[in-house]
């Protein structure tokens, strides 16, 4: 190994170092030979500096340097000198100096990399993932990983200061009763039995509250074996938090301060508190989403009352069946072509719309195929409800509440984006609160927990347990940012009689509850404090802070949408002996069955 | 939920708070009724305070409080008052005050716990693990978890300050070629394929060095599916560190400062640097162990040269066969009974000893069954070599080097403990260096890597590749503390020609190397910097800092020696449907085959 180990980092050199002899270690970013003088941009984690080999002062080092190609690893020693005024590079932080090299050692050679090591490359992502170790050399990837580390530190520092104790919970846990998305791990010691990887540390953090730890956190790896989308990974990181003896308001206020600090120290953004709070009902009503993007308006309007008696049969039918008709005013879009409006219909169909009715406001009146079915008064009411003005395009969705919300919520986002209503430099936070505690599962003919069966109902809704459980609102909250859910949690049930009511409402007998949640129920009987918590989606927060749209850009070694690691080839086949040791064998379906 | 949320922590109240009205939340540690006045010790994470219910000032709160039993959760409000001089409790940090309660709410009831919530209980460990949430309420367990969190923070702060970047590496990885101890995770998306859980992030941390991250760390969960011992857990935590562009000496010096800070800030201990360095050869020679407890002497002495020609046939035979004879001087133990010495023989047999020869130094001469086989000169040499004095007991082991080291190394520890030579208040660190790079596997008839195939050989031993590979020492090091290995690592190979030599010596063809380590070898070709690293055993460090002897005491939710979680019952059976989704089925051996 060389004795020429770095005394300085490339990117930190400046005029203050002029005259110093420095030793640098780094990678060749670029080389230029100008009339027998060799210039190399040497790169390390801190940045780039120009080093110079000149027969006048480099001696034998020049010949050695001449063998170096892109991405070679060099150790060099030389003197920092000021550049001539005409060769100063204002685009480079070190551009006022260069280093005249007297000694060099090639620490390692490099094959020509499959893509350039620089920001903003347009390369097939799979090639980047296959050579992730080269992709991570690019400054923007290094900055992202460093920002991620900084964000973790900000979380920890804040939580430490506020009396939260970091506790590690197990990764090898029990499979949950509805563990359809659990990754399973066969046990060698207990043949036929399995561990599961945690989808979250939920049960353990509640047990820590029973343990009297009072305040807990963990930056925890979680696992979910599900069909992947662009913003999901089979393993993901959440900042997991639980506290005893705080009210929901106290906890949310404490978390707001944390988020403010995080965004100030990573993105330089000033976030105002308190964050807007919007009920689940309002979010769905106005934005068609429980994670509304609040950077712009374009709110949905319920027009069911106005259109119910119109001659549009579809509207009338939907309303009779308990559905609704809502509308969106696409301001100034009346001039969109028929093709453009039809495209909106195609888009809407992706979210379940059977059609997309529309009107334009042109030449002082509402126009379009359905206008003829309305009387003057109805049209006037529509104009007022939708604040329609000359040049507007009105879009109508008629269906079940759920479909209407999906269709118009997504149209709202699409049109907002298209109209340039969204300020991408803005971080707009809100708490969505008062989620429903239960939803009715038509198939199973019973209520199911919206969040999980330990979520605490709102005190004032407790009476609905006996009359209309679907009306109960939960002490549950999500933190949304620019249309993304970046955190969520709830206050938990801590009283046995409430827990029993909850289980009974979910259709569980005492025996079933015992079988499914026995150890937890038993724990709850030994003096459980009032408690609640939250989990932040760490990968997604880093993604939003760095202005990315893909979670993979925030993770050092991510998996693809098909849950593979293109670098190492995981997952892969294993030896028959390994399976035998685990008392399992493969049970592959026939290719025919697969097709 | 109550509106009486804590304004103060129980254990922090003092005379400074006298006159204040405080709200406290906590658990009933103990209650005493003295003539109609009720005293409750209220406990939270911070400690205990006495609260008082008296008809004179508590009103209706007294009757409510009277229902409270041990481990009930209370919210109380009242005034802090100074205690009378005669009722001050000097054993309690809050013993100078008490709180006169005016309002109370029972937040939760509690069943009578199966053991007392206090330190130093002598309870069957399985009962504690089954009710871990109660065990963790005990102050010593809470202190341990808080110390663990603090230790993690010290590691992170130091590493952050020194330019290390925290990077999360995957938990779902490839099974390694020799992955006999890998936990496997079947893939749902890729039927018949498996992920493995990492035994360490080794490959990813080296890839991060190839990525130019230069300095990396992670407090990483690792997994090993092996037969468990008292100081092993199926999942464990290591502080994983890797750096580029540092020499071994620079890295070890940097880590020493880290360890010094850790022990100063957690244990209040002053650790001297530089740490002693001892070669593997010396450690094995003098202490019979590669993780010697250096808090005491009692060194082993090689006496092969002295005893080779003696009439003790066993000694002569062993030496002829390439073995050795070593001895240990148990100072002052000549008076041990025959039974006591026989017991040492039984102990030695556990480590492979076929017998344990001995002599005593009594009445000015060596005595014992084997003395008659030695001549005067040999006896004199033995006395001198072993610095034998009146009253000493000399113990001899004759066998292969390995067995002799095991036998006498363990006898040394046992006798050192028995003689009170070990100062338990002392933290004695040392680096064991110059481990052998390779060992010869007699069965496979080839060399195998002692550490892993990427460990860098010492420069000055490189020539042995062509002559005697067993002689090559590695740039590998372990950190030992009081007889435990608490860390270990190595400089890694970064030059292709060295890596190829290494693989060839391990008997790997180029094709095999490619098949086993292809993606890593390819990565190494794109400009790999010199790098190396270390991993600290975090659980074990916390165990030693807190003076425990059992890793389970340092982990919130540990598993038993048979890799079970007694609290949740993990691992457990899963649904047939889950297995079908994963394309596996059980292949349990017949009970008869099992017996």
TrEMBL record, chains A, B:
Q: What Pfam families does its record include?
A: GAD, tRNA-synt_2, tRNA_anti-codon
Extract the ranges annotated as region (Aspartate).
Answer: 202-205
- Catalytic activity from the UniProt record: tRNA(Asp) + L-aspartate + ATP = L-aspartyl-tRNA(Asp) + AMP + diphosphate
Instruction: Identify the residues that the record assigns to the Aminoacyl-transfer RNA synthetases class-II family profile domain, covering every copy.
Output: 153-558
Extract the CDD domains matched here. AspRS_core (cd00777), EcAspRS_like_N (cd04317)
E.C. designation(s): 6.1.1.12
State the source organism's domain of life: Bacteria
Q: Where does L-aspartate bind?
A: 178, 224, 451, 492
UniProt key word Cell inner membrane: no
Q: Which InterPro entries match?
A: Aa-tRNA-synt_II, aa-tRNA-synth_II, aa-tRNA-synth_II/BPL/LPL, Asp-tRNA-ligase_1, Asp-tRNA-ligase_1_N, Asp/Asn-tRNA-synth_IIb, AspRS_core, GAD-like_sf
Q: Name one GO cellular component term.
A: cytoplasm
| Protein's cellular compartments | Cytoplasm
Question: What keywords would UniProt list here?
Answer: Aminoacyl-tRNA synthetase, ATP-binding, Cytoplasm, Ligase, Nucleotide-binding, Protein biosynthesis
Is Protein biosynthesis included in the keywords of this UniProt record?
yes
Q: In the record, what terms sit under GO molecular function?
A: aspartate-tRNA ligase activity; ATP binding; catalytic activity, acting on a protein; nucleic acid binding; transferase activity
Q: Write out the GO biological process terms.
A: aspartyl-tRNA aminoacylation
* Complex and partners: Homodimer.
The UniProt function text for this chain reads: Catalyzes the attachment of L-aspartate to tRNA(Asp) in a two-step reaction: L-aspartate is first activated by ATP to form Asp-AMP and then transferred to the acceptor end of tRNA(Asp).
**Name this polypeptide is given:** Aspartate--tRNA ligase
Organism equals Paenibacillus tianmuensis
């Amino acid at each position: 190994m060389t004795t020429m180990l770095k005394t300085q980092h490339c990117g930190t050199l400046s005029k203050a170092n002029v005259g110093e002899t420095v030793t640098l270690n780094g990678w060749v970013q670029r080389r230029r030979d100008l009339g027998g003088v060799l210039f190399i941009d040497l790169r390390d984690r801190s940045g780039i500096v120009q080093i110079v080999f000149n027969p006048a002062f480099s001696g034998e080092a020049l010949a050695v340097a001449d063998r170096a190609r892109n991405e070679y690893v060099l150790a060099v020693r030389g003197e920092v000198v000021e550049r001539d005024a005409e060769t100063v590079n204002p685009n480079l932080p070190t551009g006022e100096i260069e280093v005249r090299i007297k000694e060099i050692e090639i620490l390692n050679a490099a094959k020509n990399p499959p893509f350039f090591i620089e920001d903003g490359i347009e390369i097939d992502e799979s090639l980047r993932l296959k050579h992730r170790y080269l992709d991570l050399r690019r400054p923007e990837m290094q900055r992202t990983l460093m920002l991620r580390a900084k964000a973790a530190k900000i979380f920890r520092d804040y939580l430490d200061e506020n009396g939260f104790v970091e506790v590690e919970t197990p990764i090898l846990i029990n499979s949950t009763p509805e563990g359809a998305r659990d990754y399973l791990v066969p046990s060698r010691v207990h043949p036929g039995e399995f561990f599961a990887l945690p989808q979250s540390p939920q049960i353990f953090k509640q047990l820590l509250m029973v343990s009297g730890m009072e305040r807990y956190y963990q930056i925890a790896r979680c696992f979910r074996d599900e069909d992947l989308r662009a913003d999901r990974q089979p393993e993901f990181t959440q900042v997991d938090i639980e506290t005893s003896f705080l009210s929901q308001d106290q906890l949310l206020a404490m978390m707001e301060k944390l988020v403010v600090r995080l965004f100030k120290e990573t993105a330089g953004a000033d976030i105002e508190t308190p964050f807007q709070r919007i009920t689940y009902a309002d979010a769905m009503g106005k934005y068609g989403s429980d994670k509304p993007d609040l950077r712009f308006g374009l709110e949905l309007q319920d027009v069911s009352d106005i259109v119910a008696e119109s001659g549009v049969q579809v509207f009338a039918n939907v309303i009779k069946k308990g559905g609704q008709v809502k509308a969106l005013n696409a301001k100034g879009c009346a001039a969109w072509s028929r093709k453009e409006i039809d495209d909106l219909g195609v888009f809407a169909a992706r979210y379940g719309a059977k059609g997309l009715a529309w009107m334009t406001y042109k030449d002082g009146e509402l126009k379009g195929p359905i206008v003829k079915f309305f009387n003057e008064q109805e049209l006037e009411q529509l104009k007022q409800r939708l604040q329609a003005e000359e040049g507007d395009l009105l879009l109508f969705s008629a269906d079940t509440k759920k479909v209407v919300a999906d269709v118009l919520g997504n149209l709202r986002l699409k049109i907002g984006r298209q109209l340039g209503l969204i300020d991408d430099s803005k971080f707009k936070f809100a708490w969505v609160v008062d989620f429903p505690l239960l939803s009715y599962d038509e198939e199973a003919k019973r209520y199911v927990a919206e969040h999980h069966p330990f979520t605490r109902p709102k005190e004032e809704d407790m009476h609905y347990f006996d009359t209309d459980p679907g009306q109960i609102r939960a002490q549950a909250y999500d933190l949304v940012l620019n249309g993304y859910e970046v955190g969520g949690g709830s206050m938990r049930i801590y009283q046995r009689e409430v827990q029993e009511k909850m289980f009974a409402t979910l259709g569980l007998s005492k025996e079933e509850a015992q079988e499914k949640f026995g150890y937890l129920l038993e724990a709850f009987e030994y003096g459980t404090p009032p408690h609640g918590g939250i989990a932040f989606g760490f990968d997604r927060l880093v993604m939003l802070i760095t202005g990315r749209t893909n979670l993979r850009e925030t993770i050092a070694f991510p998996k693809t949408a098909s849950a593979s690691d293109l670098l190492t080839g995981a997952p892969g086949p294993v030896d028959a002996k390994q399976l035998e040791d685990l008392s399992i064998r493969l049970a592959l379906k026939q290719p025919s069955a697969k097709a």
